[in-house]
Protein backbone atom coordinates (compact mmCIF):
# COMPACT_ATOMS: atom_id res chain seq x y z
CA UNK A 1 0.00 0.00 0.00
CA UNK A 2 3.01 2.31 0.36
CA UNK A 3 3.23 2.38 -3.44
CA UNK A 4 -0.28 3.86 -3.68
CA UNK A 5 -0.09 6.01 -0.54
CA UNK A 6 -0.34 9.38 -2.38
CA UNK A 7 -3.57 8.31 -4.09
CA UNK A 8 -5.14 6.87 -0.94
CA UNK A 9 -4.31 10.02 1.04
CA UNK A 10 -6.03 12.20 -1.59
CA UNK A 11 -8.97 9.85 -2.23
CA UNK A 12 -9.26 6.88 0.17
CA UNK A 13 -11.55 4.90 -2.15
CA UNK A 14 -8.67 4.68 -4.64
CA UNK A 15 -7.53 1.72 -2.54
CA UNK A 16 -10.17 -0.21 -4.52
CA UNK A 17 -9.32 1.49 -7.82
CA UNK A 18 -5.77 2.60 -8.53
CA UNK A 19 -4.15 0.49 -5.80
CA UNK A 20 -5.69 -2.69 -7.25
CA UNK A 21 -5.63 -1.83 -10.95
CA UNK A 22 -1.90 -1.03 -11.01
CA UNK A 23 -0.84 -3.71 -8.52
CA UNK A 24 1.40 -6.44 -10.01
CA UNK A 25 -0.53 -9.32 -11.56
CA UNK A 26 0.95 -11.94 -9.22
CA UNK A 27 0.75 -9.85 -6.05
CA UNK A 28 -1.26 -11.09 -3.09
CA UNK A 29 -3.38 -7.94 -2.94
CA UNK A 30 -4.32 -8.22 -6.63
CA UNK A 31 -5.29 -11.88 -6.33
CA UNK A 32 -7.09 -11.48 -3.02
CA UNK A 33 -9.21 -8.49 -4.02
CA UNK A 34 -9.60 -9.07 -7.77
CA UNK A 35 -13.38 -9.03 -7.40
CA UNK A 36 -13.23 -5.54 -5.86
CA UNK A 37 -11.85 -3.90 -9.01
CA UNK A 38 -14.54 -1.47 -10.24
CA UNK A 39 -16.83 -2.92 -12.87
CA UNK A 40 -16.37 0.21 -14.98
CA UNK A 41 -12.81 -0.99 -15.70
CA UNK A 42 -13.30 -3.28 -18.70
CA UNK A 43 -9.63 -3.63 -19.51
CA UNK A 44 -6.71 -3.21 -17.15
CA UNK A 45 -3.32 -1.83 -18.17
CA UNK A 46 -0.51 -4.33 -18.52
CA UNK A 47 1.25 -4.31 -15.15
CA UNK A 48 4.38 -5.89 -13.75
CA UNK A 49 4.23 -9.54 -12.78
CA UNK A 50 5.64 -8.94 -9.30
CA UNK A 51 6.44 -6.02 -7.03
CA UNK A 52 9.62 -4.23 -7.99
CA UNK A 53 12.25 -2.77 -5.68
CA UNK A 54 10.38 0.55 -5.67
CA UNK A 55 8.64 1.13 -2.33
CA UNK A 56 7.48 4.72 -2.44
CA UNK A 57 7.50 7.88 -4.51
CA UNK A 58 7.61 11.03 -2.39
CA UNK A 59 5.86 13.91 -4.11
CA UNK A 60 5.70 17.40 -2.66
CA UNK A 61 8.49 19.47 -4.16
CA UNK A 62 7.35 21.84 -6.89
CA UNK A 63 10.60 21.62 -8.85
CA UNK A 64 13.66 19.44 -9.42
CA UNK A 65 15.08 17.48 -6.49
CA UNK A 66 18.85 17.77 -6.46
CA UNK A 67 19.92 15.81 -3.39
CA UNK A 68 18.85 13.42 -0.64
CA UNK A 69 20.38 12.32 2.66
CA UNK A 70 19.32 9.92 5.43
CA UNK A 71 19.66 10.84 9.09
CA UNK A 72 22.13 8.60 10.99
CA UNK A 73 19.30 6.67 12.65
CA UNK A 74 17.55 6.18 9.30
CA UNK A 75 14.28 7.66 10.51
CA UNK A 76 14.45 10.87 8.49
CA UNK A 77 15.17 11.66 4.87
CA UNK A 78 16.12 15.16 3.75
CA UNK A 79 15.65 16.34 0.18
CA UNK A 80 16.98 19.49 -1.48
CA UNK A 81 15.15 21.13 -4.36
CA UNK A 82 15.21 23.83 -7.00
CA UNK A 83 12.03 25.14 -5.34
CA UNK A 84 14.44 26.71 -2.76
CA UNK A 85 13.33 24.42 0.06
CA UNK A 86 14.53 21.41 2.04
CA UNK A 87 11.96 18.81 3.04
CA UNK A 88 12.16 16.28 5.85
CA UNK A 89 10.31 12.98 5.38
CA UNK A 90 9.43 10.02 7.61
CA UNK A 91 11.18 7.07 5.95
CA UNK A 92 8.71 4.53 7.32
CA UNK A 93 5.51 6.16 6.15
CA UNK A 94 6.76 8.53 3.45
CA UNK A 95 4.94 11.41 5.14
CA UNK A 96 6.33 14.93 4.68
CA UNK A 97 7.21 16.20 8.16
CA UNK A 98 8.69 19.66 7.61
CA UNK A 99 9.53 22.13 4.88
CA UNK A 100 12.61 24.23 5.67
CA UNK A 101 12.45 27.63 4.01
CA UNK A 102 15.11 30.32 4.06
CA UNK A 103 17.34 29.95 1.02
CA UNK A 104 16.73 32.51 -1.74
CA UNK A 105 17.76 30.19 -4.57
CA UNK A 106 18.08 26.49 -5.46
CA UNK A 107 19.20 24.14 -2.70
CA UNK A 108 21.80 21.85 -4.24
CA UNK A 109 22.95 19.65 -1.35
CA UNK A 110 22.03 18.44 2.15
CA UNK A 111 23.91 16.54 4.85
CA UNK A 112 23.13 15.45 8.42
CA UNK A 113 25.66 15.77 11.24
CA UNK A 114 26.88 12.43 12.63
CA UNK A 115 24.62 12.77 15.69
CA UNK A 116 21.63 13.69 13.49
CA UNK A 117 20.92 16.91 15.37
CA UNK A 118 22.03 19.25 12.62
CA UNK A 119 21.20 19.45 8.95
CA UNK A 120 23.39 21.44 6.57
CA UNK A 121 22.06 22.73 3.25
CA UNK A 122 24.08 24.28 0.42
CA UNK A 123 22.53 26.68 -2.06
CA UNK A 124 23.11 28.60 -5.24
CA UNK A 125 22.52 31.71 -3.07
CA UNK A 126 26.21 31.17 -2.07
CA UNK A 127 25.42 30.17 1.52
CA UNK A 128 25.34 27.10 3.73
CA UNK A 129 22.59 26.97 6.32
CA UNK A 130 22.62 24.90 9.51
CA UNK A 131 19.21 23.77 10.75
CA UNK A 132 17.97 22.05 13.90
CA UNK A 133 16.71 18.79 12.37
CA UNK A 134 14.01 18.31 15.02
CA UNK A 135 12.50 21.80 15.04
CA UNK A 136 13.43 23.03 11.56
CA UNK A 137 14.85 26.26 13.01
CA UNK A 138 17.76 27.94 11.19
CA UNK A 139 20.73 28.07 13.56
CA UNK A 140 23.44 29.61 11.39
CA UNK A 141 24.12 30.87 7.88
CA UNK A 142 27.68 30.36 6.67
CA UNK A 143 28.86 33.00 4.20
CA UNK A 144 32.17 33.25 2.40
CA UNK A 145 31.97 31.66 -1.04
CA UNK A 146 31.89 34.10 -3.95
CA UNK A 147 29.67 31.91 -6.12
CA UNK A 148 27.06 29.14 -5.89
CA UNK A 149 27.75 26.14 -3.67
CA UNK A 150 27.41 22.66 -5.17
CA UNK A 151 28.12 20.36 -2.21
CA UNK A 152 28.34 20.14 1.57
CA UNK A 153 29.56 17.43 3.97
CA UNK A 154 30.12 16.91 7.71
CA UNK A 155 33.28 15.18 8.89
CA UNK A 156 32.48 11.84 10.59
CA UNK A 157 33.71 13.22 13.93
CA UNK A 158 31.24 16.08 13.58
CA UNK A 159 33.83 18.83 14.02
CA UNK A 160 34.11 20.12 10.45
CA UNK A 161 31.89 21.09 7.56
CA UNK A 162 33.25 21.18 4.01
CA UNK A 163 31.60 23.11 1.19
CA UNK A 164 32.43 23.07 -2.52
CA UNK A 165 31.75 25.93 -4.90
CA UNK A 166 32.01 26.94 -8.53
CA UNK A 167 34.38 29.66 -7.27
CA UNK A 168 36.93 26.79 -7.61
CA UNK A 169 37.50 26.48 -3.86
CA UNK A 170 36.64 24.22 -0.94
CA UNK A 171 36.00 25.82 2.43
CA UNK A 172 36.31 24.18 5.84
CA UNK A 173 34.10 25.46 8.65
CA UNK A 174 33.85 24.83 12.38
CA UNK A 175 30.62 22.84 12.72
CA UNK A 176 29.92 24.25 16.20
CA UNK A 177 30.70 27.93 15.82
CA UNK A 178 30.29 28.30 12.08
CA UNK A 179 33.69 29.99 11.81
CA UNK A 180 35.55 29.73 8.48
CA UNK A 181 38.74 27.77 9.16
CA UNK A 182 40.43 27.27 5.78
CA UNK A 183 40.04 27.83 2.06
CA UNK A 184 41.50 25.06 -0.08
CA UNK A 185 42.70 26.27 -3.47
CA UNK A 186 44.17 24.25 -6.31
CA UNK A 187 41.39 23.25 -8.69
CA UNK A 188 41.33 25.14 -11.99
CA UNK A 189 37.55 24.88 -12.44
CA UNK A 190 34.33 24.39 -10.49
CA UNK A 191 34.45 22.10 -7.47
CA UNK A 192 31.40 19.89 -7.75
CA UNK A 193 31.66 17.49 -4.79
CA UNK A 194 33.40 16.84 -1.46
CA UNK A 195 33.64 13.81 0.85
CA UNK A 196 35.46 13.07 4.10
CA UNK A 197 37.18 9.75 4.76
CA UNK A 198 35.64 7.68 7.60
CA UNK A 199 38.44 8.68 10.00
CA UNK A 200 37.94 12.40 9.18
CA UNK A 201 41.60 12.76 8.23
CA UNK A 202 41.20 13.05 4.46
CA UNK A 203 38.97 15.22 2.31
CA UNK A 204 38.34 14.42 -1.35
CA UNK A 205 37.17 17.08 -3.80
CA UNK A 206 35.95 16.51 -7.36
CA UNK A 207 36.12 19.14 -10.03
CA UNK A 208 35.10 20.14 -13.54
CA UNK A 209 38.84 20.23 -14.25
CA UNK A 210 38.53 16.39 -14.51
CA UNK A 211 40.60 15.75 -11.38
CA UNK A 212 40.09 14.61 -7.80
CA UNK A 213 42.22 16.12 -5.07
CA UNK A 214 42.94 14.56 -1.70
CA UNK A 215 43.59 16.98 1.15
CA UNK A 216 44.72 16.71 4.77
CA UNK A 217 41.52 17.79 6.52
CA UNK A 218 43.45 19.05 9.55
CA UNK A 219 46.12 21.17 7.84
CA UNK A 220 44.51 21.80 4.44
CA UNK A 221 47.61 20.49 2.65
CA UNK A 222 47.10 18.99 -0.81
CA UNK A 223 48.25 15.35 -0.75
CA UNK A 224 47.38 13.84 -4.16
CA UNK A 225 45.75 14.65 -7.49
CA UNK A 226 43.92 11.74 -9.12
CA UNK A 227 43.66 11.89 -12.90
CA UNK A 228 41.87 9.54 -15.27
CA UNK A 229 38.44 10.88 -16.09
CA UNK A 230 38.04 12.57 -19.47
CA UNK A 231 35.18 14.87 -18.43
CA UNK A 232 33.69 16.70 -15.44
CA UNK A 233 33.71 14.75 -12.18
CA UNK A 234 30.35 15.15 -10.50
CA UNK A 235 30.67 13.15 -7.29
CA UNK A 236 33.05 11.33 -4.93
CA UNK A 237 32.45 8.91 -2.06
CA UNK A 238 34.70 6.93 0.31
CA UNK A 239 33.93 3.32 1.13
CA UNK A 240 33.02 2.68 4.80
CA UNK A 241 36.51 1.32 5.56
CA UNK A 242 38.19 4.27 3.81
CA UNK A 243 40.19 2.07 1.47
CA UNK A 244 38.26 2.86 -1.70
CA UNK A 245 37.18 6.07 -3.35
CA UNK A 246 34.46 6.11 -6.02
CA UNK A 247 33.96 8.91 -8.52
CA UNK A 248 31.20 9.70 -11.02
CA UNK A 249 31.84 11.53 -14.25
CA UNK A 250 30.11 13.18 -17.18
CA UNK A 251 31.96 10.67 -19.39
CA UNK A 252 29.29 8.07 -18.35
CA UNK A 253 31.78 6.13 -16.20
CA UNK A 254 32.23 5.39 -12.51
CA UNK A 255 35.79 4.84 -11.32
CA UNK A 256 36.96 3.09 -8.16
CA UNK A 257 40.33 4.20 -6.79
CA UNK A 258 42.73 2.97 -4.11
CA UNK A 259 42.42 5.82 -1.60
CA UNK A 260 45.97 5.39 -0.30
CA UNK A 261 47.89 5.06 -3.57
CA UNK A 262 45.56 6.88 -5.96
CA UNK A 263 45.61 3.95 -8.40
CA UNK A 264 42.54 3.24 -10.54
CA UNK A 265 41.19 -0.18 -9.56
CA UNK A 266 38.10 -0.36 -11.77
CA UNK A 267 36.12 1.57 -14.36
CA UNK A 268 32.40 0.74 -14.26
CA UNK A 269 30.62 1.29 -17.56
CA UNK A 270 26.97 0.83 -18.42
CA UNK A 271 25.23 4.16 -17.99
CA UNK A 272 24.10 5.81 -21.22
CA UNK A 273 24.70 9.38 -20.07
CA UNK A 274 26.46 11.47 -17.42
CA UNK A 275 26.73 9.93 -13.96
CA UNK A 276 25.77 12.47 -11.31
CA UNK A 277 26.20 10.66 -8.01
CA UNK A 278 27.74 7.63 -6.26
CA UNK A 279 27.24 6.08 -2.83
CA UNK A 280 28.59 3.01 -1.03
CA UNK A 281 26.25 0.82 1.02
CA UNK A 282 27.02 0.82 4.79
CA UNK A 283 28.64 -2.62 4.56
CA UNK A 284 30.77 -1.51 1.60
CA UNK A 285 29.58 -4.35 -0.62
CA UNK A 286 27.40 -2.30 -2.99
CA UNK A 287 28.00 0.85 -4.95
CA UNK A 288 25.04 2.84 -6.30
CA UNK A 289 25.30 5.32 -9.15
CA UNK A 290 22.73 7.84 -10.43
CA UNK A 291 22.65 9.06 -14.00
CA UNK A 292 21.23 11.48 -16.52
CA UNK A 293 19.91 8.35 -18.31
CA UNK A 294 17.07 8.32 -15.68
CA UNK A 295 18.37 5.19 -13.94
CA UNK A 296 20.12 4.08 -10.78
CA UNK A 297 22.60 1.23 -11.10
CA UNK A 298 23.84 -1.12 -8.38
CA UNK A 299 27.35 -2.55 -8.67
CA UNK A 300 29.40 -5.06 -6.71
CA UNK A 301 31.90 -2.71 -5.06
CA UNK A 302 34.59 -5.39 -4.95
CA UNK A 303 34.34 -7.01 -8.39
CA UNK A 304 32.74 -4.14 -10.29
CA UNK A 305 30.01 -6.42 -11.63
CA UNK A 306 26.74 -4.75 -12.64
CA UNK A 307 24.02 -6.17 -10.38
CA UNK A 308 20.82 -4.25 -11.08
CA UNK A 309 19.36 -1.30 -12.95
CA UNK A 310 16.53 0.54 -11.18
CA UNK A 311 14.14 2.19 -13.63
CA UNK A 312 11.18 4.30 -12.60
CA UNK A 313 12.25 7.93 -12.70
CA UNK A 314 11.02 9.86 -15.72
CA UNK A 315 13.95 12.27 -15.74
CA UNK A 316 17.57 12.62 -14.74
CA UNK A 317 18.56 11.13 -11.35
CA UNK A 318 20.88 13.50 -9.49
CA UNK A 319 21.43 11.85 -6.13
CA UNK A 320 21.45 8.53 -4.29
CA UNK A 321 21.83 7.62 -0.62
CA UNK A 322 21.68 4.37 1.36
CA UNK A 323 19.85 4.20 4.68
CA UNK A 324 22.14 3.48 7.66
CA UNK A 325 20.96 -0.14 7.82
CA UNK A 326 21.54 -0.58 4.09
CA UNK A 327 18.00 -1.79 3.43
CA UNK A 328 16.74 1.29 1.63
CA UNK A 329 18.12 3.34 -1.22
CA UNK A 330 16.81 6.85 -1.88
CA UNK A 331 17.10 8.53 -5.26
CA UNK A 332 16.32 12.13 -6.23
CA UNK A 333 15.37 13.30 -9.68
CA UNK A 334 14.53 16.26 -11.86
CA UNK A 335 11.09 14.64 -12.26
CA UNK A 336 10.46 16.41 -8.89
CA UNK A 337 10.28 13.16 -6.93
CA UNK A 338 12.25 11.14 -4.42
CA UNK A 339 11.97 7.37 -4.68
CA UNK A 340 12.64 4.77 -2.00
CA UNK A 341 13.86 1.34 -3.14
CA UNK A 342 14.08 -1.95 -1.26
CA UNK A 343 17.70 -3.04 -1.64
CA UNK A 344 17.42 -6.18 0.47
CA UNK A 345 14.90 -7.96 -1.78
CA UNK A 346 17.02 -7.34 -4.87
CA UNK A 347 13.78 -7.67 -6.87
CA UNK A 348 14.33 -6.69 -10.47
CA UNK A 349 12.17 -3.84 -11.76
CA UNK A 350 10.24 -4.83 -14.86
CA UNK A 351 9.63 -2.35 -17.63
CA UNK A 352 7.20 -2.94 -20.44
CA UNK A 353 9.12 -2.69 -23.70
CA UNK A 354 8.59 0.50 -25.62
CA UNK A 355 10.30 3.64 -26.74
CA UNK A 356 13.66 4.68 -25.34
CA UNK A 357 12.43 8.20 -24.63
CA UNK A 358 9.32 10.35 -24.13
CA UNK A 359 6.23 9.42 -26.17
CA UNK A 360 4.83 12.52 -27.89
CA UNK A 361 1.71 11.07 -29.51
CA UNK A 362 -0.49 7.99 -29.73
CA UNK A 363 -3.28 7.18 -32.22
CA UNK A 364 -5.63 4.26 -32.82
CA UNK A 365 -6.36 2.97 -36.31
CA UNK A 366 -10.02 3.55 -37.29
CA UNK A 367 -10.81 -0.15 -36.88
CA UNK A 368 -9.23 -0.13 -33.42
CA UNK A 369 -6.85 -2.97 -34.26
CA UNK A 370 -3.60 -1.00 -34.27
CA UNK A 371 -2.07 1.63 -32.03
CA UNK A 372 0.70 3.91 -33.28
CA UNK A 373 3.02 5.78 -30.91
CA UNK A 374 5.46 8.56 -31.78
CA UNK A 375 8.50 9.44 -29.71
CA UNK A 376 11.35 11.87 -29.36
CA UNK A 377 13.57 8.82 -29.94
CA UNK A 378 12.77 9.58 -33.64
CA UNK A 379 10.76 6.38 -34.16
CA UNK A 380 7.15 5.34 -34.64
CA UNK A 381 6.01 2.06 -33.13
CA UNK A 382 3.01 0.01 -34.19
CA UNK A 383 1.26 -2.11 -31.55
CA UNK A 384 -1.49 -4.71 -31.56
CA UNK A 385 -4.22 -2.80 -29.69
CA UNK A 386 -5.84 -5.96 -28.35
CA UNK A 387 -2.73 -7.71 -27.01
CA UNK A 388 -0.32 -4.79 -26.57
CA UNK A 389 2.34 -6.62 -28.59
CA UNK A 390 4.90 -4.48 -30.43
CA UNK A 391 4.57 -5.16 -34.17
CA UNK A 392 6.93 -2.78 -35.97
CA UNK A 393 9.35 0.11 -35.44
CA UNK A 394 9.36 2.72 -38.21
CA UNK A 395 12.62 4.64 -38.58
CA UNK A 396 13.54 7.48 -40.92
CA UNK A 397 12.81 10.83 -39.28
CA UNK A 398 15.82 12.92 -38.26
CA UNK A 399 14.24 14.60 -35.23
CA UNK A 400 11.44 14.26 -32.67
CA UNK A 401 8.16 12.85 -33.96
CA UNK A 402 5.25 14.94 -32.76
CA UNK A 403 2.16 13.30 -34.24
CA UNK A 404 0.80 10.21 -36.01
CA UNK A 405 -2.49 9.55 -37.85
CA UNK A 406 -4.04 6.62 -39.71
CA UNK A 407 -5.89 7.00 -43.00
CA UNK A 408 -9.63 6.08 -42.86
CA UNK A 409 -9.01 2.75 -44.63
CA UNK A 410 -6.21 1.94 -42.14
CA UNK A 411 -3.72 1.38 -45.00
CA UNK A 412 -1.61 4.50 -44.49
CA UNK A 413 0.08 5.98 -41.46
CA UNK A 414 1.30 9.57 -41.47
CA UNK A 415 3.92 10.89 -39.07
CA UNK A 416 4.85 14.53 -38.40
CA UNK A 417 8.26 15.54 -37.15
CA UNK A 418 10.40 18.35 -35.80
CA UNK A 419 12.57 17.73 -38.88
CA UNK A 420 9.89 19.84 -40.71
CA UNK A 421 8.60 16.86 -42.72
CA UNK A 422 5.68 14.46 -42.88
CA UNK A 423 6.22 10.82 -43.79
CA UNK A 424 3.62 8.47 -45.22
CA UNK A 425 4.05 4.78 -44.36
CA UNK A 426 2.36 1.56 -45.40
CA UNK A 427 0.65 0.59 -42.13
CA UNK A 428 0.80 -3.08 -43.00
CA UNK A 429 4.41 -3.42 -44.10
CA UNK A 430 6.00 -0.41 -42.41
CA UNK A 431 7.54 0.77 -45.69
CA UNK A 432 8.10 4.54 -46.14
CA UNK A 433 6.07 5.66 -49.17
CA UNK A 434 6.50 9.45 -49.35
CA UNK A 435 8.15 12.44 -47.68
CA UNK A 436 6.12 15.68 -47.71
CA UNK A 437 8.28 18.79 -47.49
CA UNK A 438 7.24 22.44 -47.38
CA UNK A 439 6.85 23.59 -43.79
CA UNK A 440 9.52 25.98 -42.50
CA UNK A 441 9.46 24.65 -38.96
CA UNK A 442 8.41 21.69 -36.86
CA UNK A 443 5.21 19.88 -37.90
CA UNK A 444 3.14 19.31 -34.78
CA UNK A 445 -0.15 17.80 -35.98
CA UNK A 446 -1.63 15.90 -38.92
CA UNK A 447 -5.08 14.65 -39.97
CA UNK A 448 -6.57 12.71 -42.89
CA UNK A 449 -9.80 13.80 -44.56
CA UNK A 450 -12.74 11.35 -44.14
CA UNK A 451 -12.33 10.07 -47.71
CA UNK A 452 -8.57 9.67 -47.23
CA UNK A 453 -7.73 11.84 -50.23
CA UNK A 454 -6.34 14.81 -48.32
CA UNK A 455 -3.91 15.26 -45.46
CA UNK A 456 -3.71 18.37 -43.30
CA UNK A 457 -0.59 19.37 -41.37
CA UNK A 458 -0.16 22.02 -38.67
CA UNK A 459 3.17 23.63 -37.88
CA UNK A 460 5.04 25.95 -35.58
CA UNK A 461 5.52 28.12 -38.68
CA UNK A 462 1.92 29.30 -37.90
CA UNK A 463 0.43 27.68 -41.01
CA UNK A 464 -1.72 24.71 -41.95
CA UNK A 465 -1.00 22.89 -45.21
CA UNK A 466 -3.30 20.67 -47.25
CA UNK A 467 -1.73 17.81 -49.23
CA UNK A 468 -2.90 15.26 -51.77
CA UNK A 469 -2.57 12.04 -49.74
CA UNK A 470 -2.09 9.95 -52.88
CA UNK A 471 0.48 11.99 -54.80
CA UNK A 472 1.97 13.99 -51.91
CA UNK A 473 1.42 17.25 -53.80
CA UNK A 474 0.94 20.44 -51.75
CA UNK A 475 -2.58 21.78 -52.44
CA UNK A 476 -2.94 24.85 -50.19
CA UNK A 477 -1.28 26.81 -47.39
CA UNK A 478 -3.76 28.22 -44.86
CA UNK A 479 -2.47 31.39 -43.20
CA UNK A 480 -4.08 33.44 -40.46
CA UNK A 481 -2.92 32.15 -37.07
CA UNK A 482 -0.50 34.42 -35.20
CA UNK A 483 1.24 31.66 -33.24
CA UNK A 484 2.13 28.01 -33.68
CA UNK A 485 -0.66 25.67 -34.78
CA UNK A 486 -0.94 22.65 -32.54
CA UNK A 487 -3.92 20.67 -33.88
CA UNK A 488 -6.03 20.12 -36.99
CA UNK A 489 -9.12 18.03 -37.82
CA UNK A 490 -11.55 17.51 -40.72
CA UNK A 491 -15.35 17.65 -40.34
CA UNK A 492 -17.25 14.39 -40.98
CA UNK A 493 -18.16 15.50 -44.52
CA UNK A 494 -14.62 16.72 -45.23
CA UNK A 495 -15.81 20.20 -46.18
CA UNK A 496 -14.39 21.95 -43.10
CA UNK A 497 -11.00 21.89 -41.40
CA UNK A 498 -10.57 23.05 -37.82
CA UNK A 499 -7.18 24.24 -36.54
CA UNK A 500 -6.18 25.16 -32.98
CA UNK A 501 -3.34 27.52 -32.19
CA UNK A 502 -1.30 28.89 -29.31
CA UNK A 503 -2.89 32.24 -30.17
CA UNK A 504 -5.92 30.86 -28.23
CA UNK A 505 -8.13 30.58 -31.30
CA UNK A 506 -9.75 27.79 -33.26
CA UNK A 507 -10.22 28.51 -36.96
CA UNK A 508 -12.65 26.81 -39.34
CA UNK A 509 -11.56 26.65 -42.99
CA UNK A 510 -13.23 25.69 -46.26
CA UNK A 511 -11.13 22.75 -47.48
CA UNK A 512 -11.87 23.46 -51.15
CA UNK A 513 -11.17 27.20 -51.27
CA UNK A 514 -8.90 27.54 -48.23
CA UNK A 515 -11.00 30.47 -46.99
CA UNK A 516 -11.18 31.06 -43.21
CA UNK A 517 -14.91 30.85 -42.33
CA UNK A 518 -14.83 31.42 -38.61
CA UNK A 519 -12.47 32.23 -35.75
CA UNK A 520 -13.47 30.99 -32.30
CA UNK A 521 -11.74 32.60 -29.35
CA UNK A 522 -11.03 30.33 -26.39
CA UNK A 523 -9.50 31.01 -22.98
CA UNK A 524 -6.93 28.23 -23.12
CA UNK A 525 -4.56 26.68 -25.63
CA UNK A 526 -6.09 23.56 -27.22
CA UNK A 527 -3.65 20.79 -28.11
CA UNK A 528 -5.96 18.16 -29.63
CA UNK A 529 -9.31 18.38 -31.39
CA UNK A 530 -11.72 16.39 -33.55
CA UNK A 531 -15.25 16.92 -34.83
CA UNK A 532 -18.20 15.19 -33.19
CA UNK A 533 -20.00 12.63 -35.37
CA UNK A 534 -22.73 15.13 -36.23
CA UNK A 535 -20.25 17.94 -36.88
CA UNK A 536 -21.89 20.31 -34.39
CA UNK A 537 -19.06 20.44 -31.87
CA UNK A 538 -15.33 19.91 -31.47
CA UNK A 539 -14.00 17.34 -29.03
CA UNK A 540 -10.81 18.76 -27.52
CA UNK A 541 -8.36 17.96 -24.74
CA UNK A 542 -10.20 20.71 -22.82
CA UNK A 543 -13.65 19.25 -23.39
CA UNK A 544 -16.45 19.80 -25.93
CA UNK A 545 -16.46 23.06 -27.89
CA UNK A 546 -19.80 23.85 -29.58
CA UNK A 547 -19.71 25.20 -33.14
CA UNK A 548 -22.11 28.01 -33.96
CA UNK A 549 -23.43 28.94 -37.41
CA UNK A 550 -20.77 29.89 -39.89
CA UNK A 551 -21.23 33.32 -41.44
CA UNK A 552 -17.88 34.36 -43.00
CA UNK A 553 -15.46 36.46 -40.97
CA UNK A 554 -17.55 36.34 -37.79
CA UNK A 555 -15.66 35.96 -34.54
CA UNK A 556 -17.72 34.10 -31.98
CA UNK A 557 -17.84 34.88 -28.29
CA UNK A 558 -15.67 32.89 -25.96
CA UNK A 559 -16.87 29.30 -25.67
CA UNK A 560 -17.03 27.08 -22.60
CA UNK A 561 -16.39 23.37 -22.44
CA UNK A 562 -18.39 20.33 -21.38
CA UNK A 563 -16.46 17.19 -20.48
CA UNK A 564 -16.53 13.43 -20.79
CA UNK A 565 -13.72 10.94 -20.02
CA UNK A 566 -10.38 12.70 -20.16
CA UNK A 567 -6.89 12.53 -18.68
CA UNK A 568 -5.87 15.45 -16.47
CA UNK A 569 -2.30 15.18 -15.16
CA UNK A 570 -2.36 12.33 -12.60
CA UNK A 571 -6.07 11.53 -12.90
CA UNK A 572 -8.48 9.95 -15.37
CA UNK A 573 -11.70 11.89 -15.03
CA UNK A 574 -15.32 11.31 -16.04
CA UNK A 575 -16.87 14.73 -16.37
CA UNK A 576 -15.74 16.58 -13.25
CA UNK A 577 -15.26 13.38 -11.22
CA UNK A 578 -11.77 11.99 -10.63
CA UNK A 579 -12.12 8.24 -11.09
CA UNK A 580 -8.62 6.75 -11.45
CA UNK A 581 -5.31 7.97 -10.03
CA UNK A 582 -2.31 7.23 -12.25
CA UNK A 583 0.99 6.20 -10.64
CA UNK A 584 3.89 8.30 -11.81
CA UNK A 585 5.21 5.81 -14.36
CA UNK A 586 1.79 5.71 -16.08
CA UNK A 587 1.22 9.47 -16.21
CA UNK A 588 0.91 10.46 -19.84
CA UNK A 589 2.84 12.85 -22.01
CA UNK A 590 0.05 12.22 -24.55
CA UNK A 591 -3.22 10.31 -24.77
CA UNK A 592 -5.61 8.97 -27.41
CA UNK A 593 -9.15 7.63 -27.24
CA UNK A 594 -11.07 5.13 -29.39
CA UNK A 595 -14.55 4.75 -28.03
CA UNK A 596 -14.11 3.63 -24.44
CA UNK A 597 -10.45 2.68 -24.92
CA UNK A 598 -7.74 5.06 -23.69
CA UNK A 599 -4.07 4.84 -24.70
CA UNK A 600 -1.45 6.61 -22.61
CA UNK A 601 2.06 7.44 -23.80
CA UNK A 602 4.53 8.33 -21.05
CA UNK A 603 7.75 10.23 -20.60
CA UNK A 604 9.58 6.94 -19.92
CA UNK A 605 8.53 5.45 -23.27
CA UNK A 606 5.85 3.20 -21.77
CA UNK A 607 2.59 2.84 -23.73
CA UNK A 608 -0.48 1.67 -21.73
CA UNK A 609 -3.99 0.75 -22.86
CA UNK A 610 -7.08 0.92 -20.61
CA UNK A 611 -10.77 0.43 -21.36
CA UNK A 612 -13.68 1.93 -19.42
CA UNK A 613 -17.38 1.12 -19.24
CA UNK A 614 -18.60 4.61 -18.47
Descriptive overview:
With 614 residues, the chain is mainly beta. It has three helices and 55 strands. The strands form 14 sheets. A five-stranded mixed β-sheet has the order 42-43-44-45-49, with no helix packed on it. β13 (169-174) and β14 (180-185) form a beta hairpin. The longest helix has 6 residues, at 5-10. The chain is elongated. The two termini are 27 Å apart. The relative contact order is 0.08. Residues 346-352 and 551-563 have low confidence and may be disordered.
Short description:
With about 625 residues, the protein is mostly beta strands. It contains three helices and 55 strands.
Briefly note the structural class of the backbone.
mainly beta
Q: Which oligomeric form is depicted?
A: single chain
Compute the average pLDDT. 86
Note the beta-strand portion.
over 45%
Radius of gyration computed on alpha carbons: 28 Å
Biggest sheet descriptor: 5 strands, mixed
Quote the distance from N terminus to C terminus. 27 Å
Helix content: under 10%
Would you identify the regions where 5 or more consecutive residues have pLDDT less than 50?
A: 346-352, 551-563
Shape annotation: elongated
Q: What is the count of DSSP helices, taking H or I runs of 4+ residues?
A: 3
Question: How many β-strand runs?
Answer: 55
**What strand order characterises the main sheet?**
42-43-44-45-49
Keywords:
single chain; 614 residues; mainly beta; five-stranded mixed beta sheet; four-stranded antiparallel beta sheet; 3 helices; 2% helix; elongated
Amino acid sequence: MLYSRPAIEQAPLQIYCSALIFAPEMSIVRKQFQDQIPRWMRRLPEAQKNWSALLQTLESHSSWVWAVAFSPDGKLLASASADCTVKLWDTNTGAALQTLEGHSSWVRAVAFSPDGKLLASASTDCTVKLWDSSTGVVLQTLKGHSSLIRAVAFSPDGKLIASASIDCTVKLWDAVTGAALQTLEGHSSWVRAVAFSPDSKLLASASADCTIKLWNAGTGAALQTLEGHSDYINAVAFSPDGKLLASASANKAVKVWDASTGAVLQSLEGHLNSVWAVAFSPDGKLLASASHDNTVRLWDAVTGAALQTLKSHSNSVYAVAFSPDGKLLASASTDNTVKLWDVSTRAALQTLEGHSNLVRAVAFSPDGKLLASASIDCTVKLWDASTGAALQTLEGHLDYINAVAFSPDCNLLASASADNTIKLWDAGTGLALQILEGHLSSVDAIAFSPDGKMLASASTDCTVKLWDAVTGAALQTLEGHSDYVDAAAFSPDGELLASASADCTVKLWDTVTGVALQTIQVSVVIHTLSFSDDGTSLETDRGLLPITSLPPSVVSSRQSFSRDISVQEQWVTAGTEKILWLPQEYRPSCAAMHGSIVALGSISGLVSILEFAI
